Amino acid sequence: MMDKQTTIRRRPMTRLAMMLGLSTALAVGPVSLALAQGTAPPLSQDQLPSFAPMVEKILPAVVNISVVEKSNAAPVADEEPDDQQFQGAPGGTPFDDMLRHFFEQQQQQHGRQAPGPQPQMLALGSGFIIDPAGYVVTNNHVVGDAAKVTVVFQDGSEHKAKIVGKDAKTDLALLKIDAPKPLPYVQWGDSDHERIGDWIMAVGNPFGLGGTVTKGIVSAKSRSIDGSSYVDYLQIDAAVNRGNSGGPTFDLAGHVIGINTAIYSPNGGNVGIAFDIPSDTAKAVIEQIKANGHVDRGFLGVEIQQVTPDLAAAIGIDKDGPQGALVAAVTHAGPAAKAGVKVGDVIRQVNGKPIQKTRDLPRLIAETAAGTSVHLSVLRQGKPVEIDATVGHLDETKVAAAEGEDGDQAADTPALGMTLSSLNPAIRNRLHLGHDATGAVITHVDSGSAADSVGLEGGDVIERVDGRPVTGPEDAKTLIATAEKTPSKPVLLLVDRHGAQSFIALPQTPDAG
Protein backbone atom coordinates (compact mmCIF):
# COMPACT_ATOMS: atom_id res chain seq x y z
CA MET A 1 0.00 0.00 0.00
CA MET A 2 1.34 3.38 -0.98
CA ASP A 3 1.88 6.12 1.54
CA LYS A 4 -1.04 8.51 1.84
CA GLN A 5 1.25 11.27 0.66
CA THR A 6 1.89 9.42 -2.56
CA THR A 7 1.00 11.51 -5.61
CA ILE A 8 1.16 11.01 -9.35
CA ARG A 9 3.64 13.35 -10.96
CA ARG A 10 4.68 13.30 -14.57
CA ARG A 11 6.89 16.05 -15.77
CA PRO A 12 9.75 16.27 -18.23
CA MET A 13 13.38 16.75 -17.34
CA THR A 14 13.96 20.46 -16.87
CA ARG A 15 16.66 23.12 -17.15
CA LEU A 16 19.67 20.87 -16.69
CA ALA A 17 20.33 20.48 -20.38
CA MET A 18 19.75 24.17 -21.00
CA MET A 19 22.17 25.17 -18.26
CA LEU A 20 24.82 22.52 -18.75
CA GLY A 21 24.50 21.84 -22.48
CA LEU A 22 23.71 18.13 -22.22
CA SER A 23 21.95 16.84 -25.35
CA THR A 24 22.66 13.27 -26.34
CA ALA A 25 20.62 10.34 -27.61
CA LEU A 26 18.93 7.57 -25.72
CA ALA A 27 19.92 3.99 -25.24
CA VAL A 28 18.63 0.55 -24.44
CA GLY A 29 19.61 -2.67 -22.80
CA PRO A 30 18.50 -5.93 -21.20
CA VAL A 31 19.44 -9.46 -22.07
CA SER A 32 20.86 -11.78 -24.66
CA LEU A 33 19.24 -12.57 -27.97
CA ALA A 34 20.50 -16.09 -27.57
CA LEU A 35 18.59 -16.67 -24.34
CA ALA A 36 15.20 -18.20 -25.11
CA GLN A 37 12.67 -17.03 -22.55
CA GLY A 38 11.16 -19.79 -20.49
CA THR A 39 12.92 -22.65 -22.25
CA ALA A 40 16.62 -22.46 -21.42
CA PRO A 41 18.01 -23.59 -18.06
CA PRO A 42 19.43 -20.90 -15.77
CA LEU A 43 22.75 -19.53 -17.00
CA SER A 44 25.78 -18.88 -14.87
CA GLN A 45 27.38 -15.44 -14.94
CA ASP A 46 30.12 -16.49 -17.35
CA GLN A 47 27.53 -17.92 -19.76
CA LEU A 48 25.51 -14.70 -20.11
CA PRO A 49 26.19 -13.18 -23.54
CA SER A 50 26.80 -9.51 -24.21
CA PHE A 51 23.86 -7.19 -24.72
CA ALA A 52 25.92 -5.14 -27.18
CA PRO A 53 24.62 -6.71 -30.44
CA MET A 54 21.04 -5.94 -29.48
CA VAL A 55 21.86 -2.41 -28.33
CA GLU A 56 23.70 -1.68 -31.59
CA LYS A 57 20.64 -2.79 -33.53
CA ILE A 58 18.00 -0.72 -31.75
CA LEU A 59 19.89 2.29 -30.38
CA PRO A 60 19.74 4.40 -33.58
CA ALA A 61 15.92 4.38 -33.35
CA VAL A 62 15.84 5.80 -29.80
CA VAL A 63 15.91 9.58 -29.56
CA ASN A 64 15.91 12.48 -27.11
CA ILE A 65 12.97 14.85 -27.02
CA SER A 66 13.71 18.51 -26.29
CA VAL A 67 10.71 20.73 -25.59
CA VAL A 68 10.46 24.49 -25.18
CA GLU A 69 7.32 25.19 -23.17
CA LYS A 70 5.01 28.07 -23.99
CA SER A 71 5.66 31.16 -21.92
CA ASN A 72 2.41 30.73 -19.98
CA ALA A 73 3.06 27.08 -19.17
CA ALA A 74 3.04 26.05 -15.53
CA PRO A 75 6.57 26.11 -14.03
CA VAL A 76 6.66 22.43 -13.14
CA ALA A 77 10.43 22.49 -12.82
CA ASP A 78 10.14 24.48 -9.62
CA GLU A 79 7.92 21.98 -7.81
CA GLU A 80 9.39 20.37 -4.72
CA PRO A 81 9.03 16.57 -4.58
CA ASP A 82 7.08 15.01 -1.72
CA ASP A 83 8.76 12.62 0.68
CA GLN A 84 7.06 9.66 -1.02
CA GLN A 85 5.52 9.87 -4.44
CA PHE A 86 4.78 8.47 -7.83
CA GLN A 87 6.60 10.58 -10.35
CA GLY A 88 6.52 10.75 -14.08
CA ALA A 89 9.80 9.34 -15.26
CA PRO A 90 10.88 12.80 -16.35
CA GLY A 91 11.11 15.65 -13.92
CA GLY A 92 13.59 17.78 -12.03
CA THR A 93 17.28 17.17 -11.48
CA PRO A 94 19.70 17.04 -8.56
CA PHE A 95 20.69 20.56 -9.56
CA ASP A 96 17.17 22.00 -9.39
CA ASP A 97 17.58 23.43 -5.89
CA MET A 98 20.92 24.99 -6.79
CA LEU A 99 19.52 26.57 -9.94
CA ARG A 100 16.34 27.71 -8.24
CA HIS A 101 18.27 29.39 -5.41
CA PHE A 102 20.51 31.08 -7.97
CA PHE A 103 17.57 32.58 -9.84
CA GLU A 104 15.82 33.54 -6.60
CA GLN A 105 18.96 35.38 -5.45
CA GLN A 106 19.14 37.21 -8.76
CA GLN A 107 15.52 38.30 -8.48
CA GLN A 108 15.99 39.38 -4.87
CA GLN A 109 19.06 41.45 -5.79
CA HIS A 110 17.20 43.20 -8.61
CA GLY A 111 13.92 43.44 -6.76
CA ARG A 112 11.86 42.07 -9.64
CA GLN A 113 12.25 40.49 -13.04
CA ALA A 114 13.65 42.69 -15.74
CA PRO A 115 11.21 43.78 -18.45
CA GLY A 116 11.27 42.09 -21.81
CA PRO A 117 11.19 38.45 -22.89
CA GLN A 118 11.63 35.97 -20.05
CA PRO A 119 13.61 32.72 -20.36
CA GLN A 120 11.60 29.85 -21.79
CA MET A 121 11.48 26.58 -19.92
CA LEU A 122 13.29 23.65 -21.51
CA ALA A 123 12.16 20.09 -20.87
CA LEU A 124 13.82 16.84 -21.85
CA GLY A 125 12.39 13.38 -22.32
CA SER A 126 12.79 10.32 -24.49
CA GLY A 127 11.12 8.74 -27.50
CA PHE A 128 11.54 6.19 -30.27
CA ILE A 129 10.96 6.00 -34.01
CA ILE A 130 8.16 3.58 -34.88
CA ASP A 131 7.95 4.29 -38.62
CA PRO A 132 10.80 4.95 -41.12
CA ALA A 133 8.81 7.93 -42.44
CA GLY A 134 9.68 9.82 -39.24
CA TYR A 135 6.92 9.07 -36.71
CA VAL A 136 8.17 9.26 -33.11
CA VAL A 137 6.34 7.98 -30.01
CA THR A 138 6.72 9.65 -26.62
CA ASN A 139 4.64 10.55 -23.55
CA ASN A 140 1.93 13.19 -23.57
CA HIS A 141 3.41 14.73 -20.44
CA VAL A 142 6.81 15.07 -22.14
CA VAL A 143 5.55 17.36 -24.89
CA GLY A 144 3.00 19.04 -22.61
CA ASP A 145 2.04 22.55 -23.70
CA ALA A 146 4.92 22.84 -26.14
CA ALA A 147 5.84 25.86 -28.21
CA LYS A 148 8.64 23.96 -29.91
CA VAL A 149 9.60 20.26 -30.01
CA THR A 150 12.98 19.02 -31.23
CA VAL A 151 14.02 15.40 -31.79
CA VAL A 152 17.72 14.78 -31.15
CA PHE A 153 19.42 11.74 -32.72
CA GLN A 154 22.37 9.70 -31.47
CA ASP A 155 24.76 11.62 -33.72
CA GLY A 156 23.63 14.92 -32.20
CA SER A 157 21.62 16.04 -35.23
CA GLU A 158 18.43 17.91 -34.41
CA HIS A 159 15.13 17.80 -36.27
CA LYS A 160 12.11 20.04 -35.66
CA ALA A 161 9.02 17.97 -34.91
CA LYS A 162 5.32 18.65 -35.10
CA ILE A 163 2.80 17.07 -32.75
CA VAL A 164 0.49 14.80 -34.74
CA GLY A 165 -1.74 14.20 -31.73
CA LYS A 166 -1.86 13.51 -27.99
CA ASP A 167 -3.96 11.36 -25.69
CA ALA A 168 -4.01 12.38 -22.03
CA LYS A 169 -5.95 9.31 -20.88
CA THR A 170 -3.10 6.98 -21.82
CA ASP A 171 -0.31 9.60 -21.62
CA LEU A 172 0.81 9.04 -25.20
CA ALA A 173 1.84 11.43 -27.98
CA LEU A 174 2.91 11.01 -31.59
CA LEU A 175 5.42 13.34 -33.28
CA LYS A 176 6.42 13.67 -36.94
CA ILE A 177 9.74 14.85 -38.33
CA ASP A 178 10.65 15.39 -41.98
CA ALA A 179 12.87 12.50 -43.05
CA PRO A 180 14.95 12.98 -46.24
CA LYS A 181 15.52 9.24 -46.23
CA PRO A 182 14.02 6.24 -44.39
CA LEU A 183 14.98 6.33 -40.74
CA PRO A 184 15.98 3.45 -38.46
CA TYR A 185 12.96 2.28 -36.50
CA VAL A 186 11.81 -0.33 -34.01
CA GLN A 187 8.72 -2.54 -34.02
CA TRP A 188 5.97 -3.20 -31.52
CA GLY A 189 6.13 -6.36 -29.47
CA ASP A 190 3.35 -8.29 -27.71
CA SER A 191 3.12 -7.09 -24.11
CA ASP A 192 0.25 -9.47 -23.38
CA HIS A 193 2.59 -12.43 -23.82
CA GLU A 194 5.21 -11.05 -21.43
CA ARG A 195 5.44 -13.02 -18.21
CA ILE A 196 6.44 -11.94 -14.75
CA GLY A 197 10.15 -12.71 -14.58
CA ASP A 198 10.86 -12.21 -18.30
CA TRP A 199 13.96 -10.17 -19.10
CA ILE A 200 13.58 -6.66 -20.50
CA MET A 201 15.79 -3.67 -21.19
CA ALA A 202 14.88 0.00 -20.90
CA VAL A 203 16.21 3.04 -22.71
CA GLY A 204 16.16 6.59 -21.45
CA ASN A 205 17.66 10.01 -20.90
CA PRO A 206 18.08 10.07 -17.10
CA PHE A 207 18.78 13.50 -15.62
CA GLY A 208 19.55 14.82 -19.11
CA LEU A 209 22.74 12.72 -19.31
CA GLY A 210 21.84 11.18 -22.65
CA GLY A 211 21.41 7.64 -23.94
CA THR A 212 21.46 5.12 -21.10
CA VAL A 213 20.81 1.38 -21.30
CA THR A 214 19.50 -0.58 -18.29
CA LYS A 215 18.22 -4.10 -17.87
CA GLY A 216 15.80 -5.87 -15.58
CA ILE A 217 12.73 -8.08 -15.53
CA VAL A 218 8.97 -7.73 -15.66
CA SER A 219 8.13 -7.43 -11.96
CA ALA A 220 4.33 -7.40 -12.24
CA LYS A 221 1.49 -6.89 -14.70
CA SER A 222 -1.88 -5.13 -14.69
CA ARG A 223 -0.85 -2.44 -12.23
CA SER A 224 -3.15 0.54 -11.60
CA ILE A 225 -1.20 3.59 -10.44
CA ASP A 226 -3.33 6.64 -11.17
CA GLY A 227 -6.92 5.48 -11.21
CA SER A 228 -6.82 5.18 -14.98
CA SER A 229 -9.43 2.89 -16.48
CA TYR A 230 -7.56 2.70 -19.76
CA VAL A 231 -4.08 1.40 -18.88
CA ASP A 232 -2.99 -1.75 -17.07
CA TYR A 233 0.67 -0.88 -16.48
CA LEU A 234 3.66 -3.20 -16.61
CA GLN A 235 5.92 -2.92 -13.58
CA ILE A 236 9.63 -3.35 -14.25
CA ASP A 237 12.75 -3.19 -12.09
CA ALA A 238 15.16 -1.80 -14.71
CA ALA A 239 16.75 1.48 -13.61
CA VAL A 240 14.40 4.26 -14.74
CA ASN A 241 14.87 7.84 -13.55
CA ARG A 242 13.63 11.33 -14.25
CA GLY A 243 14.15 12.01 -17.92
CA ASN A 244 13.32 8.45 -19.05
CA SER A 245 9.69 9.26 -19.84
CA GLY A 246 8.66 8.26 -23.33
CA GLY A 247 11.57 5.87 -23.70
CA PRO A 248 10.98 2.29 -24.83
CA THR A 249 11.31 -1.00 -22.97
CA PHE A 250 12.34 -3.95 -25.14
CA ASP A 251 11.93 -7.70 -25.00
CA LEU A 252 14.78 -10.02 -25.94
CA ALA A 253 13.78 -9.91 -29.61
CA GLY A 254 14.35 -6.14 -29.68
CA HIS A 255 10.65 -5.32 -29.89
CA VAL A 256 9.00 -2.55 -27.87
CA ILE A 257 6.77 -4.05 -25.17
CA GLY A 258 6.37 -0.94 -22.99
CA ILE A 259 6.85 2.82 -22.73
CA ASN A 260 8.42 4.28 -19.57
CA THR A 261 5.94 6.65 -18.00
CA ALA A 262 6.23 6.76 -14.18
CA ILE A 263 8.35 5.70 -11.24
CA TYR A 264 7.67 5.16 -7.56
CA SER A 265 10.37 6.84 -5.55
CA PRO A 266 10.89 8.18 -2.03
CA ASN A 267 13.75 10.40 -3.17
CA GLY A 268 13.21 11.19 -6.86
CA GLY A 269 15.65 8.51 -8.07
CA ASN A 270 15.43 4.89 -9.11
CA VAL A 271 14.45 2.36 -6.46
CA GLY A 272 13.61 -0.47 -8.86
CA ILE A 273 9.91 0.29 -9.28
CA ALA A 274 8.96 1.71 -12.67
CA PHE A 275 5.77 1.57 -14.72
CA ASP A 276 5.32 1.14 -18.46
CA ILE A 277 2.36 1.62 -20.76
CA PRO A 278 2.02 -1.85 -22.38
CA SER A 279 2.66 -1.99 -26.11
CA ASP A 280 -0.73 -3.63 -26.77
CA THR A 281 -2.41 -0.50 -25.39
CA ALA A 282 0.04 1.95 -26.96
CA LYS A 283 -0.10 0.43 -30.44
CA ALA A 284 -3.87 0.83 -30.77
CA VAL A 285 -3.76 4.43 -29.47
CA ILE A 286 -0.84 5.46 -31.69
CA GLU A 287 -2.49 3.97 -34.78
CA GLN A 288 -5.60 6.06 -34.14
CA ILE A 289 -3.58 9.23 -33.57
CA LYS A 290 -1.61 8.59 -36.76
CA ALA A 291 -4.81 8.10 -38.79
CA ASN A 292 -7.06 10.74 -37.20
CA GLY A 293 -4.94 13.00 -35.00
CA HIS A 294 -6.96 11.96 -31.97
CA VAL A 295 -8.42 8.91 -30.22
CA ASP A 296 -12.07 7.86 -30.47
CA ARG A 297 -13.40 5.61 -27.73
CA GLY A 298 -16.48 3.49 -27.33
CA PHE A 299 -19.20 4.33 -24.80
CA LEU A 300 -21.61 1.95 -23.05
CA GLY A 301 -23.36 4.34 -20.68
CA VAL A 302 -23.01 2.76 -17.25
CA GLU A 303 -21.50 3.73 -13.91
CA ILE A 304 -19.81 0.74 -12.34
CA GLN A 305 -18.10 -0.33 -9.14
CA GLN A 306 -15.99 -3.22 -7.94
CA VAL A 307 -17.72 -6.39 -6.74
CA THR A 308 -16.24 -6.78 -3.26
CA PRO A 309 -16.65 -10.01 -1.26
CA ASP A 310 -19.34 -8.31 0.87
CA LEU A 311 -21.24 -7.15 -2.20
CA ALA A 312 -20.90 -10.59 -3.78
CA ALA A 313 -22.47 -12.13 -0.68
CA ALA A 314 -25.26 -9.54 -0.61
CA ILE A 315 -26.02 -10.04 -4.31
CA GLY A 316 -25.90 -13.80 -3.91
CA ILE A 317 -22.96 -14.52 -6.22
CA ASP A 318 -20.33 -15.22 -3.57
CA LYS A 319 -19.86 -18.77 -4.88
CA ASP A 320 -18.63 -17.33 -8.16
CA GLY A 321 -16.17 -14.99 -6.45
CA PRO A 322 -16.01 -11.17 -6.50
CA GLN A 323 -15.51 -10.77 -10.24
CA GLY A 324 -17.18 -8.55 -12.77
CA ALA A 325 -18.40 -4.95 -12.83
CA LEU A 326 -21.46 -4.05 -10.78
CA VAL A 327 -23.75 -1.58 -12.55
CA ALA A 328 -24.58 1.25 -10.14
CA ALA A 329 -26.29 3.53 -12.68
CA VAL A 330 -27.39 3.40 -16.31
CA THR A 331 -27.27 6.51 -18.49
CA HIS A 332 -30.71 7.45 -19.75
CA ALA A 333 -31.13 6.58 -23.44
CA GLY A 334 -27.53 5.37 -23.60
CA PRO A 335 -26.37 2.19 -25.35
CA ALA A 336 -26.67 0.07 -22.19
CA ALA A 337 -30.16 1.37 -21.40
CA LYS A 338 -31.33 0.66 -24.95
CA ALA A 339 -29.93 -2.88 -24.73
CA GLY A 340 -31.71 -3.60 -21.45
CA VAL A 341 -28.86 -3.39 -18.93
CA LYS A 342 -30.25 -2.66 -15.45
CA VAL A 343 -28.95 -1.26 -12.19
CA GLY A 344 -27.71 -4.18 -10.07
CA ASP A 345 -26.55 -6.24 -13.06
CA VAL A 346 -23.05 -7.68 -12.80
CA ILE A 347 -21.30 -7.66 -16.18
CA ARG A 348 -19.01 -10.71 -16.20
CA GLN A 349 -17.86 -10.88 -19.84
CA VAL A 350 -17.61 -8.74 -22.98
CA ASN A 351 -17.47 -10.77 -26.20
CA GLY A 352 -16.29 -13.74 -24.15
CA LYS A 353 -13.48 -11.81 -22.44
CA PRO A 354 -13.78 -12.03 -18.65
CA ILE A 355 -14.06 -8.91 -16.48
CA GLN A 356 -11.58 -9.81 -13.74
CA LYS A 357 -11.30 -6.26 -12.43
CA THR A 358 -13.76 -3.39 -12.69
CA ARG A 359 -11.45 -1.33 -14.90
CA ASP A 360 -11.43 -4.14 -17.49
CA LEU A 361 -14.91 -3.10 -18.64
CA PRO A 362 -14.26 0.57 -19.55
CA ARG A 363 -10.97 -0.44 -21.18
CA LEU A 364 -12.60 -3.10 -23.37
CA ILE A 365 -15.49 -0.82 -24.32
CA ALA A 366 -13.15 2.12 -25.00
CA GLU A 367 -11.15 -0.03 -27.42
CA THR A 368 -14.34 -0.90 -29.35
CA ALA A 369 -15.33 1.30 -32.28
CA ALA A 370 -18.62 3.15 -32.06
CA GLY A 371 -21.41 1.30 -33.88
CA THR A 372 -19.95 -2.11 -33.07
CA SER A 373 -22.19 -4.71 -31.43
CA VAL A 374 -20.84 -6.35 -28.27
CA HIS A 375 -22.16 -9.36 -26.40
CA LEU A 376 -22.46 -8.93 -22.64
CA SER A 377 -22.69 -11.85 -20.23
CA VAL A 378 -24.55 -10.59 -17.18
CA LEU A 379 -25.67 -11.90 -13.80
CA ARG A 380 -29.05 -10.48 -12.79
CA GLN A 381 -30.26 -11.43 -9.32
CA GLY A 382 -27.94 -14.41 -9.49
CA LYS A 383 -29.22 -15.66 -12.86
CA PRO A 384 -27.28 -15.46 -16.16
CA VAL A 385 -28.59 -13.07 -18.80
CA GLU A 386 -27.13 -12.53 -22.29
CA ILE A 387 -27.37 -9.05 -23.79
CA ASP A 388 -26.29 -7.57 -27.13
CA ALA A 389 -25.48 -3.85 -27.06
CA THR A 390 -24.35 -1.41 -29.74
CA VAL A 391 -21.40 0.66 -28.53
CA GLY A 392 -21.80 4.43 -28.80
CA HIS A 393 -19.21 7.18 -29.19
CA LEU A 394 -17.63 8.39 -25.95
CA ASP A 395 -18.55 11.92 -25.04
CA GLU A 396 -15.94 13.15 -22.54
CA THR A 397 -18.79 14.17 -20.24
CA LYS A 398 -20.12 10.61 -20.22
CA VAL A 399 -17.25 8.48 -19.01
CA ALA A 400 -17.87 4.87 -17.97
CA ALA A 401 -15.70 4.80 -14.90
CA ALA A 402 -15.28 3.13 -11.63
CA GLU A 403 -16.35 4.69 -9.13
CA GLY A 404 -26.70 15.09 8.27
CA GLU A 405 -29.11 17.24 8.19
CA ASP A 406 -32.42 17.07 10.04
CA GLY A 407 -35.45 16.49 7.82
CA ASP A 408 -39.19 16.56 8.08
CA GLN A 409 -41.32 13.48 8.70
CA ALA A 410 -38.45 11.41 10.12
CA ALA A 411 -39.22 7.71 10.40
CA ASP A 412 -38.35 5.62 13.43
CA THR A 413 -34.70 4.56 13.62
CA PRO A 414 -34.30 1.02 12.23
CA ALA A 415 -32.06 -1.43 14.07
CA LEU A 416 -29.19 -0.82 11.68
CA GLY A 417 -28.60 2.65 13.09
CA MET A 418 -30.11 5.11 10.61
CA THR A 419 -32.73 7.81 10.91
CA LEU A 420 -34.55 8.27 7.61
CA SER A 421 -36.71 11.02 6.16
CA SER A 422 -38.85 11.65 3.10
CA LEU A 423 -37.52 13.58 0.12
CA ASN A 424 -39.55 16.76 0.52
CA PRO A 425 -38.92 19.83 -1.72
CA ALA A 426 -36.62 21.48 0.84
CA ILE A 427 -34.38 18.41 1.09
CA ARG A 428 -34.39 17.94 -2.69
CA ASN A 429 -33.20 21.51 -3.11
CA ARG A 430 -30.57 21.17 -0.37
CA LEU A 431 -29.17 17.96 -1.88
CA HIS A 432 -29.51 19.20 -5.49
CA LEU A 433 -31.78 16.30 -6.40
CA GLY A 434 -34.10 16.22 -9.38
CA HIS A 435 -37.86 16.43 -8.92
CA ASP A 436 -38.19 12.80 -10.03
CA ALA A 437 -35.62 11.42 -7.54
CA THR A 438 -37.04 8.80 -5.17
CA GLY A 439 -35.80 7.15 -2.02
CA ALA A 440 -35.25 7.80 1.67
CA VAL A 441 -32.68 10.32 2.85
CA ILE A 442 -30.47 9.50 5.82
CA THR A 443 -30.67 12.33 8.34
CA HIS A 444 -28.64 10.73 11.12
CA VAL A 445 -26.30 7.75 11.60
CA ASP A 446 -25.71 6.34 15.07
CA SER A 447 -22.05 6.27 16.02
CA GLY A 448 -20.73 2.71 16.17
CA SER A 449 -23.73 1.28 14.30
CA ALA A 450 -23.64 -1.04 11.30
CA ALA A 451 -24.46 1.91 9.04
CA ASP A 452 -21.60 3.90 10.55
CA SER A 453 -19.20 0.98 10.03
CA VAL A 454 -19.63 1.12 6.23
CA GLY A 455 -19.41 4.91 5.97
CA LEU A 456 -23.05 5.87 5.48
CA GLU A 457 -23.67 9.47 6.42
CA GLY A 458 -26.32 12.15 6.62
CA GLY A 459 -27.45 13.29 3.17
CA ASP A 460 -27.07 9.87 1.55
CA VAL A 461 -30.21 8.78 -0.28
CA ILE A 462 -31.19 5.10 -0.19
CA GLU A 463 -32.78 4.30 -3.55
CA ARG A 464 -32.97 0.49 -3.35
CA VAL A 465 -32.84 -2.19 -0.68
CA ASP A 466 -31.93 -5.70 -1.87
CA GLY A 467 -32.80 -4.70 -5.42
CA ARG A 468 -36.26 -3.33 -4.58
CA PRO A 469 -37.03 0.35 -5.15
CA VAL A 470 -37.52 2.63 -2.17
CA THR A 471 -40.18 5.37 -2.42
CA GLY A 472 -39.82 6.66 1.13
CA PRO A 473 -38.59 5.94 4.66
CA GLU A 474 -41.39 3.47 5.43
CA ASP A 475 -40.43 1.40 2.39
CA ALA A 476 -36.80 1.36 3.50
CA LYS A 477 -37.73 0.41 7.05
CA THR A 478 -39.97 -2.46 5.88
CA LEU A 479 -37.41 -3.85 3.42
CA ILE A 480 -34.60 -3.64 5.99
CA ALA A 481 -36.81 -5.39 8.55
CA THR A 482 -37.40 -8.17 6.02
CA ALA A 483 -33.68 -8.47 5.40
CA GLU A 484 -33.03 -8.76 9.14
CA LYS A 485 -34.77 -12.13 9.10
CA THR A 486 -31.56 -13.44 7.47
CA PRO A 487 -28.98 -11.90 9.83
CA SER A 488 -26.00 -13.63 8.24
CA LYS A 489 -26.55 -11.92 4.89
CA PRO A 490 -25.58 -8.26 4.34
CA VAL A 491 -28.30 -5.89 3.18
CA LEU A 492 -27.62 -4.55 -0.32
CA LEU A 493 -28.27 -0.80 -0.55
CA LEU A 494 -28.12 1.39 -3.65
CA VAL A 495 -27.10 4.81 -2.34
CA ASP A 496 -26.93 8.19 -4.05
CA ARG A 497 -24.32 10.59 -2.64
CA HIS A 498 -24.00 13.98 -4.33
CA GLY A 499 -25.27 12.52 -7.59
CA ALA A 500 -22.96 9.49 -7.61
CA GLN A 501 -24.63 6.12 -7.15
CA SER A 502 -22.96 3.11 -5.58
CA PHE A 503 -23.90 -0.17 -3.96
CA ILE A 504 -23.08 -0.76 -0.31
CA ALA A 505 -23.21 -4.11 1.47
CA LEU A 506 -24.57 -3.21 4.90
CA PRO A 507 -23.78 -5.82 7.57
CA GLN A 508 -26.40 -6.44 10.22
CA THR A 509 -23.89 -6.09 13.05
CA PRO A 510 -21.25 -3.36 13.45
CA ASP A 511 -18.47 -5.92 13.94
CA ALA A 512 -19.16 -7.43 10.50
CA GLY A 513 -18.49 -4.05 8.90
Description:
The protein is an alpha+beta fold and 513 residues long. It contains eleven helices and 28 strands. Strands 2-4-5-8-7-6 form a six-stranded antiparallel barrel.
- Overall outline: elongated
The major sheet is characterized as:
6 strands, antiparallel, barrel
Number of helices: 11
DSSP strand count: 28
Strand content: 25-35%
Q: Which percent bin holds the helix content?
A: 10-25%
Which radius of gyration do the C-alpha atoms yield? 27 Å
Low-confidence segments, ≥5 residues, pLDDT <50?
1-38, 74-84, 89-119, 397-413
Structural class: alpha+beta
Order of strands in the sheet with most strands = 2-4-5-8-7-6
Oligomeric state of this protein = single chain
Report the span from N to C terminus: 21 Å
Average pLDDT over all residues = 76
What's the SSE blueprint?
Blueprint: E1 13-14, H1 16-20, H2 52-58, E2 62-69, E3 85-88, H3 96-110, E4 122-131, E5 135-138, H4 140-143, E6 146-152, E7 158-167, E8 172-177, E9 199-204, E10 212-223, E11 233-236, E12 248-250, E13 256-265, E14 274-278, H5 279-292, E15 298-299, E16 302-306, H6 309-315, E17 325-330, H7 335-339, E18 346-350, E19 353-354, H8 360-366, E20 373-380, E21 383-390, E22 392-393, E23 418-421, H9 425-431, E24 440-445, H10 450-453, E25 461-465, E26 468-469, H11 473-483, E27 491-497, E28 500-506
Antiparallel strand pairs: 1-4, 2-4, 2-6, 3-13, 4-5, 5-8, 6-7, 7-8, 9-10, 9-12, 10-11, 11-14, 12-13, 13-14, 15-22, 16-17, 17-18, 18-19, 18-20, 20-21, 23-24, 24-25, 25-26, 25-27, 27-28
